[in-house]
Amino acid sequence: MENIATSYLTRAEFWLCITTLIYFLMNGAQIFETLVFVPKWTASPPDNFKILLDGKGTSLKFFWIIFHSLHEITFLLAIIFCWKIELVRNWLLILFAVHFAVRVWTLAFFAPNVIDFQKVAKNPTLAKDLIIRTSLWQTLNYVRVAIFIAVSIGLIPLCMKLFNLRH
C-alpha cells in the first residue's frame, strides 16, 4: 500500500463511519418494521391491508426512499474515499454488490407486492392467494433484513482496519 496522507485517512474514516452508522440506523428501522408493522398487516389479509395505504395508514414509502437514497450516497462516498486502501476498497465493493443485489430484489419483489396489497386494500375483489403471498413476503423479508444486517456487520472490521492504519 502506498503512503497515504493523514487527511485522506480522515476522510476515509469519516465516510465509512457515516455509512456504517446510517446502515445500522436503517437496520433498526427494518427490524422495527419487521417485528411490529409487518405482522399487523400480514395477520389478516386483506382486512389489515388498509394500514399500507398512503394517507390512510402507515405508508413508509417516502421514509424508505429517502433513507435508502441517503445511505447509498454515503456508501458510494465511502467507496470513493477508501479507494486507495485496497483491502478496504475491495471489501466495500463486495458488500456494496451484496447490498445492491438485495435492493434489486426489493424493487423486483417486495415493492411490487406491497403495491399489489395496497390495490387489494382499495379493491378487495383483486385478492388472489393472499395468505400464501403475504406469508412468502413475510418469510423472505426476514431473509432480506438478515442480509442487510450481515452487510452492516461486515462494515465494522473495515472501520477497525482504517483506524488501525494510523498506528
TL;DR?
By secondary structure, this protein is mainly α. The chain is built from four helices and no strands.
Percent of residues in helices: over 70%
Biggest sheet, in brief?
none
> Strand percentage, roughly?
under 5%
Count of individual beta strands:
0
| End-to-end separation | 15 Å
Structural class by sheet pairing and helices:
mainly alpha
Radius of gyration: 19 Å
Oligomer: single chain
| Low-pLDDT runs | none
Backbone shape: elongated
Average pLDDT: 91
Element pattern in H and E: HHHH
Q: Enumerate how many helices there are, as a single number.
A: 4
Key terms:
mainly alpha; 167 residues
Give structural notes:
This protein has helices at residues 6-42, 61-81, 86-122, 130-165. It is mainly α. The longest helix has 37 residues, at 6-42. The protein is elongated, with a radius of gyration of 19 Å. 19% of the residues are buried. The mean pLDDT is 91.
Task: Furnish the topology, listing elements before pairings.
Elements: H1 6-42, H2 61-81, H3 86-122, H4 130-165
